[in-house]
């Protein structure tokens, strides 16, 4: 397999490259997030460190998952349960904490490949709620066929709800997926963005609030 190794530690990268090559893999190493994002499209498997110098690895993971279902294992020194959950919820297929044995890494890679990759994100998926049309692939929203300009996070919140229209998303889940921090649940950031969605579309029922539970996409009238 063509393995993209995203690791800024030269010594560890060299050791992993040797081990992966010994197991028959072709390894391309990226030490920075910008290079990882450029190379991810040509990889069969990605090993991603989270502590990168130019961008947090979780943001790299989210960006990769917007366009690719490539098998991916997070390989990091972050051991906190919160970090593990954030990695898995952001789209990692597995999460391996340093230090680890090479044999364990190889076994986990084989297990991920056996499970198969997730379906590719729908590139032409359009969700309609009444006269509101949400184009997930193009990141555009139309109301009565007129385009509506949303901020990046406003669209991200709406897209998260639109991908599974009948599913209720908790505040913590939305904050984790969109802001990358579920501990922001006490702030008003999410409320402000939901209010912005309702105001800009002129459709108060587009996002439904379920008190004490979370939010879901509204139903067509």
From TrEMBL:
Domain (Response regulatory): residue spans on this chain: 2-113
One Pfam family recorded for the sequence: Trans_reg_C
DNA-binding region: 124-219
Stored SUPFAM superfamilies: CheY-like
The entry's keywords: DNA-binding, Phosphoprotein, Transcription, Transcription regulation
Domain OmpR/PhoB-type: 124-219
Domain of life per record: Bacteria
4-aspartylphosphate found at: 49
InterPro entries: CheY-like_superfamily (IPR011006), OmpR/PhoB-type_DNA-bd (IPR001867), Sig_transdc_resp-reg_receiver (IPR001789), WalR-like (IPR039420), WH-like_DNA-bd_sf (IPR036388)
Protein name, UniProt field: Sensory transduction protein RegX3
């Amino acid at each position: 397999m063509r393995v993209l190794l995203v690791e800024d530690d030269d010594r560890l990268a060299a050791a992993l490259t040797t081990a992966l090559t010994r197991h028959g893999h072709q390894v391309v190493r990226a030490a920075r997030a910008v290079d990882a994002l450029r190379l991810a499209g040509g990889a069969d498997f990605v090993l991603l460190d989270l502590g990168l110098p130019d961008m947090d690895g979780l943001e790299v993971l989210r960006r990769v998952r917007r366009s690719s279902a490539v098998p991916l294992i997070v390989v990091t020194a972050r051991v906190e349960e919160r970090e593990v959950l954030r990695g898995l919820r952001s789209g990692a297929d597995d999460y391996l904490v340093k230090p680890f044995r090479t044999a364990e890494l190889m076994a986990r890679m084989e297990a991920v490949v056996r499970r198969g990759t997730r379906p590719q994100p729908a590139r032409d998926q359009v969700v309609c709620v009444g006269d509101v049309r949400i184009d997930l692939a193009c990141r555009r929203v139309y109301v009565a066929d007129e385009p509506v300009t949303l901020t990046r996070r406003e669209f991200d919140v709406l897209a998260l709800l639109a991908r599974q229209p009948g599913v209720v998303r908790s505040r913590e889940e939305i904050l984790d997926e969109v802001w990358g921090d579920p501990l922001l649940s006490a702030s008003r950031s999410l409320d402000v963005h939901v209010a912005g969605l309702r105001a800009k579309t002129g459709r108060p029922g587009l996002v439904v609030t379920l008190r004490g539970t979370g939010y879901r996409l509204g139903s067509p009238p």
